[in-house]
Design brief:
- The chain is α/β, with parallel strands linked by helices.
- The protein is built from 14 helices and 16 strands.
- It has an 8-stranded mixed sheet, with helices on both faces. The chain has a 6-stranded antiparallel sheet with strand order 12-13-11-14-16-15.
- Helix 1 (18-33) packs across helix 6 (128-143), helix 3 (64-84) packs antiparallel against helix 4 (92-114) and helix 4 (92-114) packs antiparallel against helix 6.
- The radius of gyration is 23 Å and the shape is globular.
- It binds adenosine-5'-diphosphate (ADP), aspartic acid and magnesium ion.
- Aspartic acid (ASP) is lined by residues 11-12, 43-44, 49, 129, 195-196, 210-214.
Length: 467
């Protein structure tokens, strides 16, 4: 197949050191050389985003020494990569990295002085990971004989709302990205966009949520009407389970946008949960590809699912660190206002609900939320619902989900899952099935989640031996 325009996203592992960056650049260059226009979107070097979050917290708590130590480690990593990629000490790249590190150091010092880390300052700090990767990729592309130009997310036209930490693109983003990148492409220059980040109308830097570089790439893909978006990864593609948990997990050849969204929502870290949303309208395909094995087709994500007989389920996934919040009391019984007040309180806090179940006979509503959101949820509920109701947290939970469009209208799928869980002595705490019938999810005790994942994966014949 011949392409006119591709967006290629390189993840943290693909950017982790000079060798990985050089290899990633060669993957983009391979296409450019045969006449394809390529936009490259890059993540921070593996581990850098976590380091930035950690050092921002250290500065806020007053430990500036720890924050500076961390910055120094990162700085060495960026300079080493630049040098190994052939940058001279007085080159533009080295100067740019030095300046960015200086600004980062000042921002972190500001947090330390104020002992205050707002979501806005956290985004400013954490986006440096991607901003520092972009010049390294530009340099590697140039070393490979291409002309390249790097831009921050905002410079590339990505305009977002001001939900710092979890921002969403504004509708005019697409026009802006097209305006800013088309000229470069037609001049034969490969744009390199810092992923994960955008900016607000007022110019404040925002981030798109963890794993957000996937989202940046699909935003750019939609804006330019790309033929396809390729997300290069350290795995073969989207697999039937997290390969770190299930050793015989298999690559899935084709998934629909809907299936991928369910998988990502229920914890498959391989793609950002909203990554496919920009592609849905225009039907642009997304490919998840292995950088280590570039000719392997990986996973094709498209509008239509492809179902195989006898395999109603395509993947098993899990979210760890979940809490169940129970709202109970005689007052819940059959009174819609009570339910409304529960959801109202949740909506105000902008908490993501993983599962909801109501049992009227038990006068109880249960909500599954990420444990990091539990305290906020509890406080909002205690303030927002009637005093007669008891609101309690049950921590130490995980949510396990099976995903596949083939389960639509099929009988016995849930039964197969519950039998597998029962055989492992896994107690099910909550159950939910979406009306889209793309998934069934259950809450289980966190301690059992790996055993449960393995058992369910096996029960649906997803492993190597039976696939
Ligand atoms: P990148 O930086 O390239 O976006 P990530 O670390 O965010 O890479 O995502 C890839 C990782 O996602 C894999 O290394 C793998 O451990 C994990 N993962 C979890 N579930 C799945 C799955 N179902 N298929 C593939 N990878 C998965
Ligand atoms: N570097 C960011 C993260 O770790 C974004 C990404 O990798 O997609 O979440
Ligand atoms: Mg990722």
């Amino acid at each position: 197949m011949s392409y006119d325009l591709l967006v290629m996203k390189f993840g943290g592992t693909n950017m982790q050191d000079s060798r990985a960056i050089r290899h990633s650049a060669s993957l983009a260059a391979r296409s450019v050389r045969v006449g394809v226009k390529v936009v490259v979107v890059v993540s921070a070097m593996a581990g850098v985003t976590n380091q930035l979050l950690k050092l921002a917290d250290a500065a806020q708590s007053g430990d500036i020494a720890a924050a500076n130590d961390e910055i120094a480690l990162m700085r060495t990593r960026h300079f080493t990569a630049a040098q190994e990629l052939g940058a001279a000490p007085d080159s533009v790249t080295v100067r740019e990295i030095r300046e960015m590190h200086e600004t980062l150091r000042q921002a972190v010092y500001g947090v330390y002085l104020l002992r205050e880390l707002t979501p806005r300052s956290r985004d400013l700090i954490v986006a440096f990971g991607e901003r520092l990767s972009a010049p390294l990729m530009s340099l590697a592309l140039e070393q490979d004989g291409l002309r390249a130009h790097h831009l921050s997310g905002g410079e590339a036209g990505i305009l977002t709302d001001s939900h710092f930490g979890n921002a969403k693109p504004m509708p005019n983003t697409y026009e802006r990205v097209k305006d800013r990148l088309s000229g470069l492409l037609s001049a034969g220059v490969t744009p390199v966009v810092a992923g994960f980040m955008g900016e607000t109308e007022k110019g404040a830097i925002t981030t798109l949520g963890r794993g957000g570089t996937d989202f940046s790439a699909t935003i750019v893909g939609k804006a330019l009407g790309a033929d396809e978006v390729w997300a290069w990864k350290d795995v073969d593609g989207v697999m039937s389970a997290d390969p770190r948990v299930v050793k015989d997990a298999q690559n899935i050849e084709v998934l629909s946008y809907g299936e991928v969204m369910e998988l990502a929502y229920f914890g498959a870290k391989v793609l950002h949960p909203l990554a496919v949303t920009p592609l849905q309208e225009s039907g642009i395909p997304l490919r998840v590809k292995s950088a280590a094995d570039p000719d392997f087709p990986g996973t094709l994500v498209q509008a239509q699912p492809r179902d195989e007989d006898g395999h109603p389920v395509k993947a098993v996934t899990a979210i760890r660190n979940v809490s169940i919040i129970n709202v109970s009391g005689a007052g819940v019984l059959g009174i819609p206002e009570v339910i409304a007040s529960v959801f109202d309180a949740i909506a105000r806090e902008n908490v993501t609900l993983l599962m909801v179940s109501q049992s009227s006979s038990m006068s109880n509503v249960s909500l599954a939320v990420q444990t990091v959101d539990a305290e906020r949820t509890l406080a909002a509920l205690r303030a927002g619902v009637s005093l007669e109701l008891k609101v309690e947290e049950q921590p130490g939970v995980a949510v396990l989900a099976i995903v596949g469009s083939g389960m639509r209208g099929q009988k016995g799928v849930s039964a197969r899952m519950f039998t597998a869980l029962a055989d492992q002595d896994v107690n099910v705490l909550m159950i939910s099935q979406g009306s889209s019938e793309l998934n069934v999810s259950v809450a289980v005790e966190a301690a059992h989640v790996d055993a449960a994942t393995l058992a369910v994966h096996r029960a649906f014949g997803l492993g190597a031996a039976t696939a």
